[in-house]
Amino acid sequence: MEEVNDLIKQRVQKLDDLRELDSDPYGRPFDTTHDTKVIHSQYGKLDRESLEKSPIQVTIAGRIIAMRNFGKAAFAHIQDSAGRIQVYFRKDILGKKFSIMKKLDIGDIIGLNGILFRTKTDELTVEVKGFELLTKSLRPLPEKWHGLRDIEQRYRQRYVDLIVNPEVREIVRKRSRIIKSIRDFLESRDFIEVETPMMQQIPGGATARPFITHHNALGIDLYLRIAPELYLKRLLVGGFERIFELNRNFRNEGISTKHNPEFTMLEFYIAYKDYNFLMPFTEDLFKYLAETVIGSLKIPCGDDTIDLTPPWPRIPLYDALVRKGVPEDILRDRERAFSWARQNGIAVKPEDSCGKILDEIFKEKVEPYLIQPTFIIDYPVELSPLAKRKKDNPELVERFELFIASREIVNAFSELNDPAEQKQRFQSQVEAKEKGDEEAHRMDEDYVRALEYGMPPAAGEGIGIDRLVMLLTNSASIRDVIIFPQLKPEK
RNA sequence: GGGCCGUUAGCUCAGCUGGCAGAGCAGCUGACUCUUAAUCAGCGGGUCCGGGGUUCGAAUCCCCGACGGCCCCCCA
Questions:
Q1: At A58, phi and psi to the nearest 5?
Q2: Nucleotides of B under 7 A from a protein CB
Q3: Cα separation of the two ends of chain A
Q4: Which nucleotide is nearest to A478 (CA to C1')?
Q5: What confidence tens digit (pLDDT) does each residue in A392-419 have?
Q6: Residue A144: nearest nucleotide (C-alpha to C1')
Q7: CA(A252)–C1'(B51) in Å?
Q8: Residue A149 counted as domain residue
Q9: A101, A254, A269, A416: which sits with the fewest CB atoms below 10 Å from its CB?
Q10: Nearest residue to B12 via alpha carbon and C1'
Q11: What pLDDT, in 10s, does the model give residues A92-147?
Q12: What share of chain A is helix, strand, coil (3-state, %, to 5)?
């Protein structure tokens, strides 16, 4: 971090030289009249003659990303948040200021004004009448052809990645548009956004290992939430009928191309509906997002094209298994399921429940083939301690997961609102935990108490926003859509 | 936690069976007032990821470690 190489020394020297020339290398506010995108869209069609006839004055600011110096003139490209444009410095126009220009480096941030013209090669260019250094850059940027390729450095120094790799900036923008569009969609359907605790005394609402932290004044350990679910449903008890929360969850699990320890989740709940309502609702949401953000329902994804045109197939979990050659007689028989899984090389543990074993088989035999959007519905009850049983088949719950590109993106169910049954379900989770299942749910007495006041029948859904952004930006790794992914310390 | 691969100049990368550490870009000096991978001439720049070992000699071979990537495991 402390390395001082010649390139930095040279720039520090220039910084002193610039002060001598009365140019503040760490400047002041600078009011612009245009950004580069506006210039291109408004004047991009004007030809050389009309630009000469009625000159257009612009004042812009941005970072120098390329420079071609001549003796008494220079071309540079300036990049702002909207794009880039070429600018042209001439000694006969700038006079004394030209010597300041000579001290500029690639990476410096400048403000300038001038008039638009077209070069010999017809590139729209600003002829600089005056300019001002706004910030001197002391470190050299990566080279212009290959840019910054080193993946580690791109993640560690994302600011450099953002300067030189436009596609990264585009993902950041798209992510912002996706999140805004989700809020628009939900708010237009009368949902309100709420914020529930990130620091929880009992981490609930999901199966995962939590991060532990400590509150000094209270003298207790707290957990970073693994899900907001139980708090959001307390709000259903409290009388809110349509709520959502779009924020971070934290899970103390492995890191991979699909997992970051902190990730963004949307959860929403709607009273007086069930999971059948949520499937078309989800289709509508995804359709809206694709149309708004991508402008198409057909989106590229690796070598495939995903077609989001609804409706999407609904396949019961058991049917999905049987279709992939899983024998029907193992579905309700834990011992048979266990030995079949073992025979087929699927890692299942002796303490796993039947539902857990079927889930493992599903991940191995079915999930890889779920490229196009598919709802897998009706899960075994032991996998879903917060979901409501199916009326006609109490070993299953009213739950679906949406898979796209082999990734689980949505999990939703009809909410269990019977406090006695909820207490029992927690109880069997506690037993699983005592048997060594680290990720089993914990008992939450207050949540049961809340249900005893009466929670309306409701449906709830969670959407992994990072994976959704991956899908809509055709990104292979979650680290490409999380601006600052978690890494080990540098040294 | 396991397996495979990677780490050489600011950046992108060569460097073969072990024999003086290289190129392009970037930088510096000079020339150049329409270039856009500007051009031309010259110059500087290295903890070869770290530590051991083998060897007359290691960027190169061996061992240990760090960090990263991919694939498993776990999870969403």
A1: -135, 150
A2: 1, 6, 9-13, 24-28, 31-39, 44-45, 66-76
A3: 10
A4: B76
A5: 999 999 999 999 999 999 999 999 999 9
A6: B25
A7: 32
A8: no
A9: A254
A10: A146
A11: 999 999 999 999 999 999 999 999 999 999 999 999 999 999 999 999 999 888 99
A12: 35, 25, 35
Name the residue range of residue A83's domain: 2-135
d(CA A234, CA A219): 26
Asked whether residue A332 is assigned to any structural domain, the reply reads no
The interface predicted TM-score (ipTM) is 0.92
Residues A115 and A205 in one domain: no
Please give the single-letter amino acid code of residue A31.
D
Q: How far is the CA of A381 from the C1' of B7 (A)?
A: 49
- Number of structural domains found in chain A: 2
User: Whole-model pTM?
Assistant: 0.94
User: Residues near A19 by Cβ (< 8 Å), separated by ≥ 6?
Assistant: A25
CA of A405 to C1' of B26 (A): 41
Same domain, A204 and A272: yes
* Same domain, yes or no: A17 and A55: yes
The answer to whether residue A342 is domain-embedded is no
Q: How far is the CA of A473 from the C1' of B46 (A)?
A: 39
Question: How far is it, in rounded angstroms, from Cα A374 to Cα A306?
Answer: 11
Q: Looking at the structure, do residues A119 and A164 belong to the same domain, yes or no? A: no
Measured in angstroms, what separates residue A7's CA from nucleotide B72's C1'?
43
A453 bridge partner residues? none
Determine the nucleotide nearest to A75 by Cα–C1' distance. B35
Query: Does A196 share its domain with A260?
Result: yes
Q: A15 CA, B15 C1': separation in Å?
A: 37
Residue A394 in any domain: the answer is yes
